UniProtKB/TrEMBL annotation:
<dbReference type="Pfam" id="PF05701">
    <property type="entry name" value="WEMBL"/>
</dbReference>
<protein>
    <submittedName>
        <fullName>Uncharacterized protein</fullName>
    </submittedName>
</protein>
<feature type="coiled-coil region">
    <location>
        <begin position="74"/>
        <end position="158"/>
    </location>
</feature>
<keyword id="KW-0175">Coiled coil</keyword>
<dbReference type="GO" id="GO:0005829">
    <property type="term" value="C:cytosol"/>
</dbReference>
<dbReference type="GO" id="GO:0009903">
    <property type="term" value="P:chloroplast avoidance movement"/>
</dbReference>
<dbReference type="GO" id="GO:0009904">
    <property type="term" value="P:chloroplast accumulation movement"/>
</dbReference>
<dbReference type="InterPro" id="IPR008545">
    <property type="entry name" value="Web"/>
</dbReference>
<comment type="similarity">
    <text>Belongs to the WEB family.</text>
</comment>
<feature type="region of interest" description="Disordered">
    <location>
        <begin position="1"/>
        <end position="31"/>
    </location>
</feature>
<feature type="compositionally biased region" description="Basic and acidic residues">
    <location>
        <begin position="7"/>
        <end position="28"/>
    </location>
</feature>
């Protein structure tokens, strides 16, 4: 086809066919310039052009569908990435919280070690290095504490009985 065939005037299929014949004749005669035509090949028959257009349309449809699939995949991956980002943030928060708990527990452990060392030092001075002795001493102190509680409760009940006796005596004196 020539540049004239590309003009904005619409050509009928018959005119396109004639143009194609002219191009073919020009090529046969060696007078056709490649810069004046659309391509390096002579114009094809309208049926071939139609087939090429259908093939191009099919390829365009496939490409469009492929792009649509790619976009859907990208969107799906973006959602997965966002979920992972949220999960990562939660994990970071838990890690920070756990790190602070670890620090707190380490401080508490160090304090307990210091107290234990002080207790061991006191036991060494007291002459007792045996952990069983410490355990027995703790049991003895616990039982003493229980005894003191019982004695306190007994004393409390004695006080209540004495107060009750005093009240009864007062009321008898008043009635006598």
């Amino acid at each position: 086809m020539t540049l004239e065939a590309n003009s904005t005037d619409r050509k009928t299929p018959h005119a396109v066919e004639e143009t194609g014949k002219e191009n073919h004749e020009n090529l046969d005669g060696g007078h056709q310039s490649f810069t004046g035509g659309l391509g390096l090949c002579p114009s094809s028959a309208p049926g071939l052009i139609l087939m090429e257009l259908k093939r191009a349309k099919l390829n365009l449809t496939r490409t469009t569908n492929d792009l649509s699939d790619i976009r859907a995949s990208v969107e799906s991956y973006n959602k997965k990435i966002e979920k992972e980002r949220i999960s990562l943030e939660k994990t970071r928060e838990r890690l920070t919280l756990n790190s602070s708990k670890i620090s707190s527990l380490e401080k508490e452990l160090n304090q307990t070690r210091q107290k234990l060392q002080v207790a061991k030092d006191a036991d060494i001075k007291g002459g007792s290095d045996n952990p069983m002795d410490i355990s027995r001493e703790l049991q003895r102190l616990s039982s003493e504490a229980e005894q003191f509680k019982k004695m306190g409760e007994a004393a409390k009940s004695e006080v209540f009985r004495a107060m009750s006796d005093i009240e009864q005596t007062k009321s008898r004196i008043k009635t006598a």
